Amino acid sequence: MAAGLALSGLPFISSTDFQPGPEFITLTILHTNDVHSRIEPFPMDGSRNEGLGGAAKRAGLIRKIREQQQHVLLLDAGDVFQGTPYFNFFGGELEFKLMSAMGYDACTIGNHDFDAGIEGLERQLVHANFPLLVANYDFSDTVLNGKTKEYTIFKKGPLKIGVFGIGIELKGLVPESLYKETKYIDPLQTANKIAGILKYDHKCDYIICLSHLGYKYNEQKVSDVVLASESSDIDLIIGGHTHTFMRTPDIYRNKQNKEVVVNQVGWAGIMLGRLDVVFERNKKGHCVHCGNTLIR
Predict the structure, then answer these.
(1) CA nearest neighbour of 99 among 3, 30, 153, 51
(2) How far apart are CA 212 and CA 139, in angstroms?
(3) Which CATH superfamily is domain 29-294 in?
(4) What is the pLDDT of residues 56-75, one digit of tens each?
(5) Could you state, in order of their start, the residue ranges of all structural domains in the chain?
(6) Sign of CA dihedral 119, 125, 126, 132
(7) pLDDT in tens, 195-229
(8) What is the pTM of this model?
(9) What distance in Å separates the CA atoms of residue 77 and residue 100, rounded to the nearest whole number?
């Protein structure tokens, strides 16, 4: 199912309706969330998800897209760990090795990534050749001090793409014995601060938040929807935690009445998210195609 976002106020259009010329630059953003150690496809047992997912098929799809597109980012919104015996036996080593082999560019930290303790997460970083991004966890008094980043910047042709991570509050969700002295910082204030640094200090053309806050809640709780509405400089929120399957992204208006795209692709590696963002000569980006795809 393919759709897109507005170009100069136009409604959703498909990539077949808009073919960017040489004066445009296309950035293809691929993403996952809440893969939960699902290395193999779901078994062929008659269940709803039978045959779906699997690291090998995901890797093949990513490789095919990279062969077709010049500028690609591959991102994950957390909860890489926990859910199958692979995690129980190998503690996350296999997950990070496979993500490294697939060429992930960055990942944020989910609550289940602490399931082997903060020391367990730290031990597996040697297998990750991509940065773990989280701006609202203070790891100063833990073994992760200096081993994660608030944000990173990717150069794709003439474009500068800023990516940062925001994590969910761990207290009440994860035993304190697992995350130790990790301090939680207000996600909305932190997200606006980091997005401002990326836009105004580093002059980024497009800003992506990898969020493990969750898509939306009935109660008064910070979520991707709240973050989108209360932000100023974020262009895209790639979400996780709530296992929300979205065939197409949602669009919200931020505090400056500008569009913020929010997307999430369920759990267990069943889907690969894809957004194609086309940049004009002035480097203003428009998302013109979304193809969140079931991995069969």
Answers:
(1) 30
(2) 17
(3) Metallo-dependent phosphatases (3.60.21.10)
(4) 999 999 999 999 999 999 99
(5) 29-294
(6) negative
(7) 999 999 999 999 999 999 999 999 889 999 999 99
(8) 0.92
(9) 15
